[in-house]
Amino acid sequence: MLPAFRPSVQVEKNVFGSSPPSFFVGRYGYPKVRVCPALPPITGDTTIYDRPEMWNTLPIEKVLEFRYSMILGQFSADVRRSREVEVVQELSLYDKPVDVEINLVRTPRQITSFDDVLPPLGPSAPAKDVRICSTPSPPRPVERVFYETDLKAADAMVYLYGKGIAISHIQKLLSAGGLGVRRKLVPTRWAITAVDDTVSKQLLEEVRQHDTIDQYRVFVLKEARNLFIAILCPSQWSFEWGEAWYPDTTWNRTKRVGVLTDSEGFFGRTTYAKLGGCYYSARLATAEYLNHIKRQAMAIVWREIYPGFKIPIGVWFVREMLRKMYGGDYTEFDTLEEALKYIGEHSSLGVERWVKTSNLVKAAGRQRTLWEFV
To answer: Range of 284's domain?
Structure first.
């Protein structure tokens, strides 16, 4: 089981430190929500504490240590306007640490919280006041969209991504109400999925214009009691995301492996994915890879989660692990059968179970049969 780290520093009522920058916007009680600036009680370069793009080479235990060290000051605020809204909007501008002081009502409880979408959060307590003490300069593209209030939020996301702004930074800007025409706070978990969804849709507009790949490409990555598999098939764009949760894992306390898949066709989907935020994070990483190689493919992407993986660490894990996987080597095959046989050598679940639950494997098999008659 992954260890439960706790902050290694003594937490006082008055907390001063370098926020990565970081904050959390809750969703319960909307439009009156919790707004929580966050910081570790240390100064210096704390960027890595809240930058998922920097975590794909770190042990999960180290990521948890960073996250558990973040102290959150809780404010209740209207999503449209308050001093706390202005504070998190200013925090969202920067990609370098910001010195912040939070005056808490009481010493925060040493309790951490977890979520299926968000990275883990550290101790928190109601706060009286928050003050930004020093700031760096914001990236110019961020500054531009922040002050361009007639630019739609989706257009702003795509523009920022094209300028090399990190996905995690764009998510903060949206959550803080720093993008779009009618601006207001967006709960953090909603903002994370909205950015993954919006950016991947834009990338897929380009991917659909490319030629298909010529052979079946299979990627495999084993990481932290997880197995990630991708089969890219020589066909027009479609996408499937599947999860197999073993017993004694975060979302499976039964005695059987739970397997679920969801998919979309060439023109995308019109309903929310039943597998939630991980579906959109996986689709983004896949769209990035295909756009990078200037090809399109039918993408079948599966994840196996093995016993002992009990910490819900957020959808960043899927996005960054798949980015890591697509940045590595792959194996090519001439037929789907060969690709599936190869996967069977790596999968603990067994390729037969995956095939049984996969709509796209069936579709890829039908297409291969038609090609034989061409």
So the answer is: 216-371
